[in-house]
Write a structure and sequence with these properties.
The protein is an alpha+beta fold. Helix content is 22%, strand content 35%. The chain has 2 helices and 5 strands, in the order H-H-E-E-E-E-E. Strand 2 and strand 3 form a beta hairpin.
C-alpha cells in the first residue's frame, strides 16, 4: 500500500515538473517578435506604389514595404462592435511616393500595427516608412479589382 502511494507521489511530482517546464517554454515564446518583425524593416526592399497598383496579383497576401509622404488622413469611429468586439477608430492614410498614391488602413485598437507610432499621431506632409499587408479582391460579376492595404508597422523616416 505504501509502495503505491510513493509511486503516486513520484508520478505527481514528475507530471508537475514536466508541466512547469512546458509552461515556461510557452511564456518564453510569447516574448518572441511577430513573424514580420523577425526581419528588420530596413532590410526589406522598398516597392514603388505604381508597381503595386499595376501588378496587384503579384502582391496578393504579401507583406510589402512602402515609403512615402502622408497626403491625407481620415479618422472615423467604428461603432459596430461585431467587427472586433468594441468600438474603435479606423484611420485611412493616403500615402504618395514619386510613382503613385495608395490608401493604407490602420484599424486602431483592432488592427495589427505593432509599432509605437500610430496613424492618428501623424500629420500631413510627414515622410513615413510602412509595412503593409496587401489584399486583392475581385468582384465576380464585373471583374473589378479592389486593393486593400492594411498597416502592420510604421515609422517616421529619419535622415
Amino acid at each position: 500500500m505504501t509502495e503505491s502511494r510513493i509511486y503516486s507521489a513520484l508520478l505527481t511530482v514528475a507530471l508537475i515538473s514536466t508541466g512547469m517546464i512546458w509552461f515556461d517554454s510557452v511564456i518564453a515564446s510569447d516574448e518572441l517578435p511577430r513573424s514580420y518583425l523577425k526581419i528588420p524593416l530596413v532590410s526589406r526592399e522598398r516597392i514603388p506604389i505604381s508597381r503595386i497598383l499595376s501588378y496587384p496579383d503579384q502582391y496578393q497576401m504579401r507583406e510589402i514595404r512602402l515609403t512615402g509622404t502622408v497626403t491625407a488622413i481620415q479618422i472615423e469611429t467604428i461603432t459596430n462592435r461585431f467587427v472586433c468586439g468594441r468600438a474603435h477608430e479606423r484611420t485611412t492614410l493616403t500615402v504618395e511616393d514619386d510613382s503613385g498614391r495608395i490608401e493604407v488602413i490602420d484599424q486602431g485598437a483592432c488592427g495589427k500595427n505593432v509599432g509605437v507610432l500610430k496613424a492618428p499621431i501623424l500629420r500631413v506632409g510627414e515622410q513615413i516608412d510602412l509595412l503593409v499587408h496587401i489584399l486583392v479582391r475581385r468582384n465576380p460579376s464585373s471583374q473589378e479589382i479592389t486593393l486593400e492595404s492594411s498597416l502592420l508597422f510604421m515609422d517616421r523616416i529619419r535622415y
